[in-house]
Amino acid sequence: MIRITVDGKEIQTEQGKTILQACLENGIYIPNLCFLETREQPRASCRLCFVETSDAERPVTACTETVRDGLDVRTNTEAVRRLQRTAFKLIMSAHHCTPKTCPVAKPCQLMRIARHIQVGLNPRPLETLERDVQEEVDLTFFTYYPFRCVMCGKCVDVCRDRNERNPLTFAKRGFDTVVTFFGSGASNLPCDDCGACVAVCPTGALIPKPPPSES
């Protein structure tokens, strides 16, 4: 075991862990959307987990930076918050869902992050991006709502880990990027209905369908 200090608090963790893993395991919250404990290689796409460390000149992403004995970590500096707020506003500019219409049990991950970094959930009119995507995509086991999707990639990653046929992937580019499903809407969708993708979705972009007997 090694010791690091986070915001003045000394914690113990294992060599090889990332700063994000060490903090979360010790009850210290760092905003994140794309982190999956089961993935060896972090996606590092949401850019929300910035921290400052004693041996780096600039903020680093906590999901990619490994711990070192004696490391001093600061999670709430002005530089960190500025980067987090910029990343979060960009994410929310393409997320067309409000707390009143959110289907996820409250508080959802976006609400928690907004509260933690002290920023509003609703972007200003000029900060809202129009996306060329469908309102919803009806699939065999669940419904996909692209406007709620923040492209965290968790559903794609967990699906790849569980299903060698990789039914979930990304399509299009930029802000029009969507999660796509091979065989979408068809009875031969290469999906065994494990529910892992729905379970890891932080925004309600994937909503499971009830079994036929409950419809």
Question: Outline, from the CA principal axes?
Answer: globular
- First-last Cα distance: 52 Å
- Broad structural category: alpha+beta
Order of helices and strands: EEHEEEHHEEHEEHE
Determine and state the CATH class of the largest domain.
Alpha Beta
Largest sheet: 5 strands, mixed
Determine the strand fraction and express it as a percent band: 15-25%
Record field, number of beta strands: 10
Q: Indicate the percent of residues in helices.
A: 10-25%
List the helices and strands and how they pair.
Elements: E1 2-6, E2 9-13, H1 19-25, E3 50-53, E4 60-61, E5 72-74, H2 78-93, H3 109-117, E6 137-138, E7 142-144, H4 154-162, E8 168-171, E9 178-181, H5 196-200, E10 206-208
Parallel strand pairs: 1-5
Antiparallel strand pairs: 1-2, 3-4, 3-5, 6-7, 7-10, 8-9
Compact description:
The protein is an alpha+beta fold and 215 residues long. It has helices at 19-25, 78-93, 109-117, 154-162, 196-200; strands at 2-6, 9-13, 50-53, 60-61, 72-74, 137-138, 142-144, 168-171, 178-181, 206-208.
